[in-house]
Amino acid sequence: MTLFIEGHSCSYELQRIVQMFFPGEKVAVVPSCTGPKQKPYVEAVLSGGKAAVLWVPEHGEPLTAPARGITQDAPKYEIEHLLGVMLYSLLSKATGLRPQWGVLTGIRPVRLLLSKMQQGLSGDALHADFVEHYLVSESRFSLALQTAEAENRILQRSTPDSFSLYVSIPFCPTRCAYCSFVSQTVERAAKYIPEYVEKLCEELRYIAAIASDLGLKLRTVYFGGGTPTTLDAQQLARLMDVIGQAFDLSDIWEYTVEAGRPDTITADKLYAIKNGGAKRISINPQTLDDRVLQAIGRRHTTAQLMQAYALARQVGFDCINMDLIAGLPTDTQEGFQNSLDQVVKMAPENITVHTLTVKRAADMTFERAKEQFGLVTGMVDYARETVIAGGWQPYYLYRQAGSLSALENVGYAKPGSEGLYNVYIMDETHSIFAAGAGASTKLKRQETGLLKRVFNYKYPYEYISQFPEVLRRKDLIRAFYQGD
Ligand code: SF4
Prior knowledge:
The chain is of the alpha/beta class. The chain is built from 16 helices and 19 strands.
């Protein structure tokens, strides 16, 4: 698909709006509307004080919207907004779809809401801004508002000397069909694991020394990946011992280990995690339908999930998160509702509901996307209503490019059990020092908003072979805080 633009340079936002209607579709931007055009395409033109949009499908009649007046020298954001609204309305009419977040294409709509509130907008004015100006649906406006209140409380806790620690374990038992992480199957990467753990311990000690010199306060620790419980109990215990010895954990607010795949969870690993100091774990079913689990390449069953959950409770974990995904291949509305109802019955402290993301256009034809639109919206709406009615509250929300129906991922929590790290990483509130392959450190100066990223090598073999460079890059943390 091509997006032709003329008379302006608002390609990025308009491209994202087109992609909301055609998930996974590659939309090429061409800065001229003259010359031969291959269908399907979209045109967005600013000429002679008028904005105009046109949609030409591969088959069928072209569709256009009445031109609207705007001065050629209006600020870019005004031109972008007007063309965006016109394009959204035109594509809604053409496809019959109405993406719930209107013309908001950003991944953090709640941050926008919070910034509007800080500017003094509230009540009807805030509602009008979101619902009428940005075309956000009533349900998403109300979800954003609820999330903003909880999120703001968590953000307020962070101070300029706060930081979080992320530990990357990029190994999994098998690869899920929808995976977009840098994770390798144990089958492929088992040989790297012992040395990887050793190097990781070294990197963690190195980071701890820098944090201590700078007088920073560790607030949250998060083991993610991958599936950290792919490691054995001794490896987990070793890493957590190193963290316990090297960092000052006395002022810590949260310590999470993702135990994502139920088939990796054993009693000795759970005890190692608990004795290592973690109080929060994540056990992620994604679906409780064995047929769907098979279809997405996860080699565990619902029975294993139930056992792993019961075991975690026995070991004494009283803060458990469970992830579900709406829109998984072969899942149905009934199947998703059944998964969600079972999770609600199990009563974990946190439930996170994701919307599946389409990675490539080849994975999704428009007809299929259209079919999925209503289905996935129904799933996500059912989840929101059921979970909130059950006493969980939304506390963080983000969107991903290419998510089905341009919907959101939402973390819900029983009051007081919110996953703080999730908010800090999403909002880029404070620095996250990240260790391990595929991890990226985010350095944040709260006073000025300055943000800098420092990347580690992507794959375990590179991380191990280039380890001196990994440590050298960590010195950038010191330089950042010392203002270099
Ligand atoms: S468990 Fe997560 S990281 Fe591992 S393969 Fe599946 S989606 Fe990827």
